[in-house]
What we know:
Layout: H1 2-16, E1 22-23, E2 54-55, H2 57-60, H3 84-90, H4 112-120, E3 131-132, E4 147-148, E5 158-159, E6 176-177, H5 178-193, E7 199-202, H6 207-221, H7 223-229, E8 243-247, H8 263-271, E9 277-281, H9 286-289, E10 294-300, H10 303-312, H11 316-329
Parallel strand pairs: 3-4
Antiparallel strand pairs: 1-2, 5-6, 7-8, 8-10, 9-10
Helix pairs in contact: 4-11, 6-7
Residues 45-46, 238, 243, 245, 297 line the site of zinc ion.
Amino acid sequence: MYKIWLISIILLFIMTGCGTKIILKPPVDDQTGATVEVNENGSDDDYEGDTEYLDIEDILEETTDDIGLDEKPVIPPSNQEVVESDIEGYHDLIVDLSNKQLDVDITDPRLSDLVKHLKTNTYNHTLKQIGKVTEPDHLYALVNKLNQLPESYIPSDLREPQIRFSFSGPDEKRNLRDAAATGLETMFEAADAASLQLFALSGYRSYNRQRDIYNNNVSTRGVEATDKVSARPGHSEHQSGLAMDITSESAGFNLVYAFGETEEGIWVRENAHLYGFIVRYGKDKTPITGYDYEPWHLRYIGLDLASYIFDHQITLEELYIHVEKAIHLQ
Ligand SMILES: [Zn+2]
C-alpha cells in the first residue's frame, strides 16, 4: 500500500509541474557509443545520435528512442524553397567575409588547381540561398552549411583504409574515398612511428543516413535545436567521403574538445597537412564555418591546399572566397 501511495505521489508531482525540466546527457554516437562533445554556441557535424537524450516527457509518453524512423517521419523544410527567415536562423553563425581583407596570393603554385576549379565552379557564400555542389567528385568540392551535395551523390571509389578503428564490426562509416584512405593510412603509420596511437571513428556517411539522423533529431527536439547540433542532409562533409573523425585512448575514444590537447591531438594538428588533411573546424573559427571547434574532424583536401591552409591558418571558406575575389579582379 505504501508503495502505491509513493508511486501515485511521484506521478502526480511529475504531471503537475516538473515536466519542463530537461535532463541532458552528453550526445552519444549511436553506433559506437562514443561521446560527441557539443555546446550551444556552435553546431556539430559529428553528432549522430540522440538515444541518450533524456526528457522527462518521455516518462509520461511513449519514448521516441525506440520508434523507427520509418514509422514517424519528419520532413525538414526543403532547401529548394527555403524562406529567408529560415535561412537566417539556420545559418546565423556564418559571417559575411566578402569585405574582409586577407592576404591570399593566387600565384602561389599550391593554389593553381584551386584557381582552375573556381573558374568553373561557383560556390555560394551568402545567407540568401543554398548552393548546389556541381562537381561533387572533385577533391576541392566545398561542402558546408551554404553548399549542398546532391542527394544522389555516392562516391564511386570508397574503400576501407587499413588503419585502427575505435569500434569493431562492419559499417559504412569505415570508408573513405581512395585518395583520402591512402593519405590516412600514411598518417597513421607516421603517428605510430612517433609512438602515438590514433583511432578512426567515423568516415563516410550516406545522404540517407544523415537524413535519418537529422529527422530523428527533429522529431525529438525540433528544427531549431537540431540545426545547432546536426548537419542537414547533403550538408555534411562526411557524405563526400573525404572526412574522418579520429580519436585516441587518451581522449577516452570519444570526440571531445580535450582530444585537441592530448599528445595525439597536438600531433595531428601539427602534422595532418603533411598527409593532405586539414583540421576542418578550427578553434575560434565558428563564426566562419558555423561549426563548433572539432579537433577530431579531418578533411582530405590534398597536399597543396592542406599545406597552404596550414601555413596561413585559415578556413576553407576564407580561402575560397578570397581566391574567387582575386580571380574576378584579374
Ligand atoms: Zn566529423
